[in-house]
Amino acid sequence: MGLFLGGATLDDTIAQFVLEVTGMLGVAAEPERNALGLARGERFRLGIEEGAERAINRGREIDACRRQGRDEIACDDHAVGRRSRWLRPEKTPEPRHAPSVRSREPLPQVRCAARYRTRVAKTVATTLRLEWTGDPAADRLISENPTALLIGFCLDQQVPIEWAFQGPIRMLERLGTIDPVDVARMDPSKVELAFQTPPALHRFPASMARRVYALCKVIATEYGGDPTRIWTEATDAKEMQRRFAALPGFGAAKARIMVGVVAKHLGVRPDGWESVAPDWPTLADVRTVAERERYQTQKRAFKAAMRAEAALKSDVKLTSTTRKRPATTVARGRR
User: Fold this and answer.
1) Which of 7, 85, 234, 295 could disulfide-pair with 239, CB 3.0 to 4.6 Å?
2) pLDDT in tens, 11-21
3) How far apart are CA 150 and CA 261, in angstroms?
4) Residues 178 and 227 in one domain
5) Taking the model in full, what pTM does it have?
């Protein structure tokens, strides 16, 4: 279909649009013969064509934007779906074959002591943090190095806790090492000199230096330089107590304290450790500064009560002996 307007042929779509417009405006579709009419018709035709092309292009742009929006929404839906799949827990794959009778048996439970042996060789658990000295470096050393922990307990007698457990780091600074094998190979006089150099590492530096040297020698010879074997290889709490009591500078009471420390701080809890661990305030119940201060207060009160009880017993004993003492008589001599 074609339409002649002003001497030009229009396309079908535009022609239909022109016919509708001309019908509404009352413009004749027949071409005019005069020049003025031809010029007006040409301008009118060009205007109609441009308007129609702009409308068509605008419609195409709107359709393209709509398609693009739908594609983006679809992509977002896919992304959300993938993300939700990532967040969903993975399903346990079902076995391809039926489990055997042996596989249905319950697995043996791994004790914490065995897990501790497999994970720790020469250092204590890294999460342990003992605030016993007031010095962050000294606290870190006794928390991470089991040899330093044992040396601190060896020095913990007749001196404050802070002074005793600062001894390992001062010993490290003066000797360059606290490895039990290296210390055992040193000249004992060198260790004594390190303890006696002002400020001294203990109230009795010479005797305590000899005890620490003997402690390192026992760890090096009997436990291969690994102090953790003292508690990780013990079959029960009684054996662990005997091992601690056999160390130089450790007695029966301190051996029980060490069983409590290993059980509560290091997580190694052999059978019967509750009955061996002490029932009085000890460092086994101390980690933070507040707990240390509370422990020191309880310890002073406990010692004061023990001294008072001992004094009372001595007074009672003295009184009883005085009452039972027979009266002395003076024999009269002959004149």
Assistant:
1) 234
2) 556 656 666 66
3) 11
4) yes
5) 0.57
